[in-house]
Amino acid sequence: EALKTGLRQALEDADMDAASAIAFIHGCPDTELRPPLWRALLGPGSSEDEDTLHNRRVAYRELRSKMTAALEAPDGGDDEAEASASSSKPSLAALQKEVESDAQAAWRREAFFSERPQAAEAVANVVLTHAWRSLQYVKGSCELAGLLLYSLSGGGAPGQETV
User: Is the model's pTM score more than 0.70?
Assistant: First the structure.
């Protein structure tokens, strides 16, 4: 209980040194504190930084909309000049197929993902948007994105260890 109180106080005071030390040594002692702890450790994360979080969410939605429009375009989002300049560049449709397949396979044995199809879809959406933006998919991105989603959402089932 003292760890929960100490971590909660460190997060409320924006004392990242104390929060980091508690999390590093003891893990996160409370599933309710896990999402704010991750946000704080990853930054921007503080409660007074809601504008930054809002702006990042808006920017992601705009980027995602552009990618979706490109995917729905008759040419599948592939510009002819770009395609001829780089024949080794995968098409957006090929990226989508690879990412969705990888997202389904990455965490298929975990209840968090198998019981929540929207979680695998969210992972695929984020990773596909990044792959489109960088013109390539990096193997293992779905596993990383899934781990972050699991952690930020509070993860595990009741009764599981919360580290």
Answer: no
